[in-house]
């Protein structure tokens, strides 16, 4: 649904979006801060700060923050992605002003007490899935922070943490979204009062673009001794979500591997019993966008997974989906859009993400309408343009020495032996 909203920028550079939700018993606040790891030397401070942000200030220790949060009827959480730090608050409507005061206190007057005295333990070597993802991104797009291995752990001092807070947790470049039933003008006044004194930025902690806009195609095979599964990961061309033709590509992606009756699922799981998990998704961040297939199967099946996935891509590129497949994908996309906005909390998070990308708050309803208007011919055209295996990097990781002649049997044995565990996951 479309909601009235206002957007403004405070003098300190903080973008504020107020979304009206009349009658809502809760106010939803989402603060989105650029938080990409652009310098590996800052990895330890970045991780520790994300874990501690919101736990104390110079005027409140951890217990005082918890008590104040409880008094307001609020829930506060922090999530870190590859490019952002998202601080989420759900609070009773009457606690909105108190929450903004608390938020300002935590951001402007942070206190980082009782830091660990020793560095964290060294991370375990990257598993086959992680190693494969780094290799795919590097091969497809060139060296990039998203594909970099983590640096050795080190001790973070109090001075390190305060310095990184001053650099990273800043208003310029950040977005605060408030979804509430309160008067928007009053909300803006409260935000300016409590967050206006927050200073700093922009931080520059944004992902740089990939070196290539389209992935370099080819075949990449990694051997990972001791791996108990085989993995397939691909990178193909794509269109950004705000670009023309994205809606048609979205439906093509769903036909390919976006739901339980997709081509890849029927081929790899139901027909050949090669894979435990099958998916296709459109990936997007500030670095770029790409179409990704991800599959996991029994050891020794990697080459077969790659060959079957290439065949599915080629079939869709050459023949397109059936009208029934395109319509099924359209219904799935429409239902998923409604599901993504099923609660106000989910809606607030989605709208905050759009706002951080500079997209209008009514983008998702407009996109749902665009998906509904995509024709079967347009989906077929997207398949021809984007699903050609010759334009796709197909990469695998496997630890088995089994030959290709044993792959079909290995796939069936693996599936039968792991179905119970897969259901639990």
Characterization of the model:
This protein has 14 helices and eleven strands. It has helices at residues 43-52, 62-72, 96-108, 128-141, 158-168, 184-195, 246-257, 263-271, 302-319, 323-340, 344-356, 363-372, 376-386, 407-424, and strands at 5-9, 15-20, 26-34, 74-80, 84-92, 175-180, 218-223, 230-235, 275-285, 288-297, 393-398. The strands form two sheets. A six-stranded mixed sheet has the order 1-2-6-3-5-4, sandwiched between helices. A five-stranded mixed sheet has the order 7-11-8-10-9, sandwiched between helices. Helix 2 (62-72) packs antiparallel against helix 3 (96-108) and helix 10 (323-340) packs antiparallel against helix 12. The radius of gyration is 24 Å and the shape is globular.
